[in-house]
Amino acid sequence: MATLDHYLILSAILFCIGIFGLLTRRNAIGVLMSIELMFNSANINFIAFSKFITPEALTGQIFAVFVITVAAAEAAVGLAIVVLMYRNFDIVNVDNINFMKW
To answer: What is the predicted pLDDT for the residue at 94?
Structure first.
């Protein structure tokens, strides 16, 4: 039987992998995937706390659905920006995004 500690450890590991990917990736697609991984680790926390603290309430699941909705919107906008960057400048490297300042 998995306890709350197991879920929290899994979530912490996924969040650390997401932070590592966010800090080390230069490709915009990899950065977006790392952010999604961090959102999913937060969803694991929401659902685990909801299951173990108040199993009769669905608050954790409702928060997870909202996070999934926001993550989908973030992914759509982020991928649209990446596609436009690639069309106009033939790069998706996040180090070269300074041309978007003006």
So the answer is: 81
Residue 83 sits in a domain whose CATH number is 1.10.287.3510
Whether residue 100 is contained in a domain is answered as no
3-state secondary structure the chain: CCCHHHHHHHHHHHHHHHHHHHHHCCEHHHHHHHHHHHHHHHHHHHHHHHHHHCCCCCHHHHHHHHHHHHHHHHHHHHHHHHHHHHHHHCCCEHHHHHHHCC
Query: For the chain, how many structural domains are there in total?
Result: 1
pTM: 0.85
